Amino acid sequence: MAKQTYVNQLQSVIDRSTSALLSLSEADSARHPAPGKWSPREVLGHLIDSASHNHQRFVRARFQNDLVFQGYEQNGWVSAQRYQEAPWAELVALWRTYNLHVARVMALVPEPVRTRVHTRHNLDDIAWRTVASGEPTTLDYLMRDYVDHLTHHLRQILGAGWEDPAAPGVRTRSLLWLLFIVPLAAAGASGSTTAAAKVLTPRVVTELTKHDTDDPAIWINPADRSKSLIVGTDKDSDGALYVYDLGGRIVNRVGDLKRPNNVDIAYGLRLGGKPTDIAVTTEREKQRLRIFSLPDMKLVDNGDLVVFEGDKNRAPMGIALYRRPRDGAIFAFVGGKSGPRTGYIGQYRFADDGTGHVKMTLVRQFGAYSGKKEIEAIAVDAELGYVYYSDETVGVRKYAADPDAPAANRELALFATSGFAGDHEGISIYKINDGTGYILVSDQQANQFRIYPREGAPGRPHEHTLVKTVPVSAVESDGSDVTSLDLGPKFPRGLFVAMSNGRVFHYYAWEDIAGPGLKIAPNGVPPGR
User: Fold this and answer.
1) Does some domain include residue 490?
2) Bigger pLDDT: 490 or 429?
3) Which end of the chain is more exposed for a tag (fewer CB within 10 A), N or C?
C-alpha cells in the first residue's frame, strides 16, 4: 500500500504550529509587511479558502474520471471575506479545525483512487507546484502539494522554529513580521485593527494535549512560587491530567482517565497523619472523582468515590474544592451533566479512610437549576465563605459554602444575567487581602471574561454588578483559574489561566487583565494550608 506520509505531516504541522500562531498578538497579526502584501490574518484566511476548495476536490475525485476542478480568484476571496477584520484567535481555530478534517478526508481516500494516473487534469492551473497539461499525475500528488503549500505559508508567518519536532511549543516569529512592528499609519489602518488591539494576548501558550483541554487549576509551590504548577484536564475517553510549569511546558501526564472534565486543588488534607495537597478531577464516564497528591500526582483514592449514586444522567463535570477556615475540613462541590431543579450540586466531605487514602461522605445536595442547559463551572471563595456556579445561559448563582451555615441552602444571589453571547462558563476569583477582589466569568461564545466585584456593593455584599469586560485570545474558554500571588519574574502581580480551543491553555499576567481600572493585590492571598 502506498503510504500517505503527507497526512501525518499535515497533522504534525497543525499540532506544532497552533501554539505559535496563537502567540502572535492581534495587532501583529493585522500588520502588512509591505503595501499590497497580505497580513498574517489574510495569509491564514487564504489557507482557510485553500482548505475549503481542496476539501471538495479530494472528495469529488472519488466520483469522477479526471482531476479537473474549479479554481478561484485568491485575492478576491480574501478581500471579499474581510479576513483582515476577523479576530485572530477565531481564524486560528477555524484554520486548525478545518485542516484536521481535511487530514481525515485525505486518509479516507481509497488507495486506487489516490494512485490512479490521470493525463486529463488542470493541475497546471490549480496546483501550487504545477504539472504541465497532459503530463501524468495523481490525486496523491495534489494532496501532497496541498500540504506543502500550507507549510510554505506558515513559514512566511512563523519562520522555521516551530517546525522542530524536538522543541514543541516553540513560539518563534518570523523576522519578516518582527521587522514591521511599527503601527500602520492612521490613514492606512482599518477601524477594526484598533478594536482588535484591545484583545489580550497571553504571556504563555502551553504545549498541546492529545485531545481536548477543558479546565485548569493552579498549584502554589510553598518552597518556591516560581516553580508552581498548572494542572489541566484533557477531556476524552482516552483522557489525562497534564501538568505544566509556568513556561507552559508539559512536565507530567497522568493518563487512563475516562473523560476527566474539571479539576481543582486543595491544600493540607491529612492523609496518613500528614498534610497533603491534592488535585481532584471528575471522571465523567466512571461517575466518580479521582484524587492525586501534589506535586507527585500519585493516586490517593481507591477508585470508589462515586458521586450521585452512579446516576449516569448526572455524570460529574464541574468540581470545586473548599477548605473550611475554622477547622480545615475539605469538601468537594460537584455538578453533573444534568440534575434536579433543586439540589443540583452535591457537597462531599473528604477524610482519611485509615489507610492513607481518601474516603468521602455526602453532606448535602443544594442549589437551584434553570433546566436550560447544565451546570459545570463552580468556584469557591473560602475566605468569604461562598460558592458560585454558572447556570449556563442564565447567570451565576451564589450560596454559603459551609453546609453548617444558617440557611445554607438559601440562594444569596443570581447575577451576570445579561450581556452574555451564549454560555456562562468558567469562574475564577482574584482575591485581595482586605476581602475585596474580582469574580471573573467566561462569556464563552464572545471570547471574553466579564468581571464583577468580589465584595459586592457597599452594604450589599450579594450585589455583584459588572465592572469590566476583557476580550482575550483564548477561544471559547471553558475553565479558568487565577491567583493574586507573586509567582516570580514571569507573573509578579498574579496569574490568570484560561482554557482555549486548540488543545492549549493560555497564561495571562494579572496586570494585563487589570489594566488601569482594576486593583492589584499588594501581597496576594496565599492558599490555606
Assistant:
1) yes
2) 429
3) N
